[in-house]
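**Sequence with structure:**
===
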Amino acid sequence: MTTPVSDRFAPLPPAVRAAELTLLALHTAITIGAQLARITARRWDLPHLEHVAGQTAGHLLTRAVEGTGHPDPSLRYSDIDPAALAVVGVRVHRRADVLIIDGWDTDPVPPSTAPPDRHLSVVDALARRWGSYPAPRGGKVVWAEVGPTTA
């Protein structure tokens, strides 16, 4: 995996391994981001976290795409206005035996737990813990930590 160059997320120390993608805020971003998390878990010798990492990334990106992009899976590309198309980001990094999955979008409003958000409810069940922070260059990052004791 290459060293991330994005400033969408909080900086990591140089020694921390990370995998990162910036994607168009389309339904396809959800699957691609989930696959990145699964592949990263496997490559970093954490195969027991593949499933939970993929599900967590998928739900974080679903929130991001639903909030800022075009979540319709049957959307035709010819119907998209390129000038109005947002991007989302996903980053996976490791700390000891856990993976931290970050989902970035352009909406600066932090997630609320009231009323319950169905995607964050799933993330809450899958992750050891989760939270959010304002992104350095705008928007927000919702992160989740998954490890051996998570679902």
